[in-house]
User: Fold this.
Amino acid sequence: MPPSSPSRSPWPAFALIGVAVGLLALAFLWVAGWLQPSRIGGGKLADSLEYNAGKHPGWRRAHTKGLCVTGHFDSNGAGVALSRASVFRAGSVPVLGRFSTGGSDPFGPDGRPTFHSLALAFHLPRGEEWRTAMDHTPIFPVANAADFVALQIASKPDPVTHKPDPAKMKAYLAQHPETQAFLDYMATAPLPASFATGTYYSINAFRFIDGNGQSRAVRWQFEPETKGGDLDKKTLDQQPVDFLFDDLIARVKQGPLRWHLVIVLADAGDRTDNATVAWPANRRHVDVGTLVLDRATPEETGGCRDITYDPLVLPNGIAPSDDPLLAARSATYAASFHRRAVEGPHPDAISLAAKGGQK
Assistant:
């Protein structure tokens, strides 16, 4: 009889599995910032939001109050010359989105001079997704994670006055003129009277890669077809608590709402690593299609509650720029999602209002 083959030990295979698991664990720890004490991870960023606004178990740590929307994106094909991403081929893809207001209070009144935001998830062929979370302002108040944490600490509201400590804010702003510039912008810029009439900006720069592998720096914005007036900032506190969301629900019932996706191409020298710096208005703009939103649903039943609109979920043909805020945003969204998943689902503010719930 031929000699039997020596049996193979299972230990090498187990060792490889252990190495793979270990590498995944190290990657998780690195993203969280635990392996680099000087690096600010998503957990620290989420902590700073909770320090500023308090804890609201089960809710998003930022842009907490929101409403789901669904619809589709109709590409006109013009984007193919800029990016090989499938979303820009002529045709239509489904979209699941979320409108929200800035801040971490799930029951905060809509009548505040704060961000109006739109987040979108494009469901593309072959399982790809493109996610983007945008604000109605073309600039952001900070340029990096460390400044974001410092701003949360400095602007923590006093429990009696409900306003930040003036001395702390003065000291912070003296070191951060870019934040002062943003506050000055918010004080003078119009505040849209409706979610439907706002333009929403990508905040950060990205890179488009075309079919030939050529890369170019871009930002994008969604410009509304619906026209409307602006809010009187002097009477904001007199508005109903949920007026922005009530208005959106009523408008969608009357018919679809539309925005044009406009790609803005950078010129040489335009900053791609700093979201506090606006690009000049004369940069080339390319209209690549139309976003159509035809349904609004409370988060409790609308499907957007358990999505993180991570700006680094990108399809082939779109890549991150060198803006450090992109990684910080991604890590914060992940930390926030993990915390609220452990805490359990919540009824959303708009559903509670419809049911006559307490606020």
Summary: The domain at 46-354 is CATH 2.40.180.10 (Catalase HpII,  Chain A, domain 1).
